[in-house]
Specification:
With 291 residues, the protein is mainly beta. The chain is 5% helix and 32% strand. The chain folds into two domains: 183 residues, Jelly Rolls; 104 residues, no CATH class. Strand 2 and strand 3 form a beta hairpin.
Length: 291
C-alpha cells in the first residue's frame, strides 16, 4: 500500500515493468528492490498454485521471496503466460524467468521441461535438486503487442514457474547483426573484481534491472575506483555498483583471462555469441598522455 492507504501499482513504482510472483497470494512491493510484484492471476488461466516446503534452504538465497511460491501445470502439453507491455511491439525487452522446485509436491523428483517464447524454443529447464534454482533471461524485440511465454511438458515431470519479469530496454543496446535475430539468450552477466560482500546487484542501481553476478580471479588485483557514471554510461547505463570496481593483473606474467569453463558457461558451438565488454581507465595518466 502507498501513503494514505492508496494502492501502490506498477506504474507508480517501476514504469514499464511487468513483475509476476507466480503462485503468490497477493500483490506486494519487494522490500529489498522496491519492485512491485503482482500475482499471476491476470496472466495465465491454467495451473495450480503451490508453496515450497518450509524446510527448504536454497543454495543461493538471494531471490528467496520470489522462490517461495510457484505455479505448476499438471494438465496439458503447453501452458502459456500472456504479457502485454505498454510500449507495445517493435521495442526491446529483457524477459527473465525463475524456477525453484523446492520439493513443493513432496516427491523429491525435479522435472525437466522446455520453455518457449511464442513458437521459439528459449531454454530447457532443469533444476538439479530441491535446494537449487534456475534463472534464464532473453532479450526480445516482438513484432506484435502480445508476448507469450510458454511451458512445455517433455518426458520428465510437471512444468512449473516461480517468477516472470519483463523490463523495457533502450532500443539502441544489445543489437544483433540481422533483424531476423530477434532473440538473444543471456548466458551470464558479470561485475568483475567487485569488493562488495553482496553476491549480485540489480535494480534500483541498474535502471534496466539487469542482474550482475560478482566475478573475480586469484591473479587479479581487485579494488574500488573513482568513476563518473555520467561520462561513461552511454546508452547501456551501467550501474554505479558495476562501474566503481575494476580488476588488474599482478604483473605481465599474469594476464587477465576470462575463462568460460571457470565461469560455468556452457557453449553451444552451433550458435552465434555476442560478447559485451565494458572498459574504464582506472589510472590517471600524466599530462599529455592519452589512453
Amino acid at each position: 500500500m502507498g501513503d494514505g492507504g492508496k494502492l501502490t501499482t506498477n506504474d507508480d513504482t517501476n514504469p514499464g515493468f511487468i513483475s509476476i510472483d507466480c503462485g503468490a497470494a497477493h500483490d506486494y512491493v519487494d522490500k529489498d528492490t522496491g519492485i512491485w510484484y503482482q500475482t499471476d492471476t491476470n496472466f495465465v488461466e491454467t495451473g495450480t498454485n503451490s508453496t515450497v516446503l518450509p524446510t527448504i534452504n536454497f543454495d543461493y538465497p538471494y531471490f528467496g521471496g520470489l522462490l517461495n511460491t510457484l505455479r505448476s501445470f499438471p494438465e496439458g502439453k503447453m501452458n502459456c503466460y500472456t504479457l502485454k507491455p505498454k510500449q507495445g511491439k517493435n521495442h526491446t525487452y529483457l524477459i527473465r524467468a525463475y524456477f525453484a522446485y523446492g520439493n513443493y509436491d513432496g516427491k523429491n523428483q525435479t522435472p525437466t521441461f522446455d520453455l518457449y517464447l511464442g513458437v521459439n524454443h528459449w531454454d530447457t529447464v532443469y533444476v538439479r535438486n530441491n535446494n537449487d534454482y534456475h534463472i534464464t533471461e532473453i532479450i526480445h524485440t516482438p513484432t506484435t503487442n502480445t508476448i507469450h511465454v510458454c511451458l512445455v511438458k517433455t518426458v520428465v515431470g510437471v512444468p512449473f514457474i516461480s517468477a516472470l519479469e519483463l523490463r523495457p530496454l533502450s532500443d539502441a543496446i544489445y543489437q544483433t547483426s540481422s533483424p531476423s535475430q530477434s532473440l538473444l539468450i543471456n548466458r551470464r552477466r558479470f561485475d568483475f573484481a567487485s569488493t562488495s560482500s553482496a553476491r549480485h546487484s540489480r535494480y534500483k542501481d541498474d535502471i534496466y534491472d539487469r542482474i550482475w553476478f560478482k566475478f573475480s580471479y586469484t591473479y587479479w588485483i581487485n579494488g574500488d575506483i573513482d568513476s563518473d557514471p555520467a561520462s561513461t554510461n552511454g546508452s547501456y547505463k551501467l550501474p554505479t555498483e558495476v562501474l566503481k570496481s575494476a580488476g588488474q593483473s599482478f604483473n605481465l606474467s599474469y594476464p587477465i583471462v576470462f575463462d568460460y569453463d571457470f565461469a560455468m558457461i556452457d557453449l553451444d558451438r552451433s550458435s552465434d555469441y555476442y560478447v559485451y565488454f565494458h572498459f574504464l581507465e582506472i589510472q590517471k595518466l600524466p599530462q599529455g598522455q592519452k589512453e
